[in-house]
Structure formats: structure tokens, C-alpha cells
Write a structure and sequence with these properties.
By secondary structure, this protein is mainly α. The protein has six helices and no strands. It is found in: Membrane.
Length: 132
């Protein structure tokens, strides 16, 4: 999985510099996809997997995992994209661009522990989305 994330991150940065259709960018994207597929295949056949894929058979767990994954990808993608934007658009150094994200990171660190107590007061059923 580290290989997939590394290749995808490199593809994002090289895509800006070299172009999205550059061979190095495309090779990194394809390599990342292959690495994710290999990870899933390995986890499905492992005796003691890091991620037990049988957990995702339940509809509730699968939906919660997908929601968490979507939120995490969006959050990390926004932070990563902002750092690149600050560097390329404003000409900031990597350190200054990283420090510009610090208020966002500190807010998450402060606000995250307040989630479970709030959920225990309001209850989880109150926020459930209903579909037909």
C-alpha cells in the first residue's frame, strides 16, 4: 500500500511539472493501480491479513468504511493540493506551504476528540440518512 501511495503522490507532483500525459506520470498512475490490486489480492489470500476483507461483507460496515475513506481521501487530497498550489502558484517554499496548513491541522486535532462525547449525547440514529 505504501508503494501505491508513493507512486500516486509522485504522479500528482510530476503531472503538474511534466504534464498529465507524460510517460513517467502515466507509469506511476498505472503502477499505483497495480499495487492496490496486488495489495487487495494479497490480503484476500493471507492467513493473517492486515485488513480482514471479510469485515466489508456487512452493509453497515462497508458503508461506514466507504464514508470514512471518502472523507479521509478528500481531506488529505485537499491538504496535499493546497501545499502544491501554494508552492506553484505563489512560489512559496515547501516549509512555508506546509506551515500554511497548520491551522487546518490544529483545528482537526482539537475538534476530533469532541466527536464521541457529542455522538453519545445526540445518538447515532438521529443523523442516519434514509433512502428508499
Amino acid at each position: 500500500m505504501r508503494l501505491a501511495l508513493g507512486l500516486f503522490s509522485y504522479a500528482l507532483t510530476s503531472g503538474v511539472e511534466q504534464g498529465w500525459t507524460a510517460p513517467s506520470t502515466l507509469v506511476c498512475v498505472v503502477g499505483a493501480v497495480v499495487a492496490v490490486i496486488a495489495f487487495i489480492g494479497r490480503e484476500a489470500s493471507a492467513e493473517h491479513p492486515m485488513l480482514d476483507l471479510t469485515l466489508l461483507r456487512g452493509r453497515t460496515i462497508r458503508g461506514a468504511a466507504l464514508a470514512q475513506l471518502s472523507g479521509s481521501v478528500a481531506m488529505v487530497g485537499a491538504m496535499f493540493g493546497l501545499v502544491l498550489h501554494f508552492q506553484y502558484a505563489f512560489g512559496w517554499s515547501p516549509v512555508r506551504a506546509g506551515l500554511a496548513n497548520l491551522p487546518f491541522i490544529v483545528t482537526m486535532l482539537v475538534a476530533t476528540p469532541s466527536g464521541p462525547p457529542r455522538a453519545s449525547v445526540t445518538g447515532s440514529r438521529r443523523w442516519r440518512v434514509r433512502s428508499r
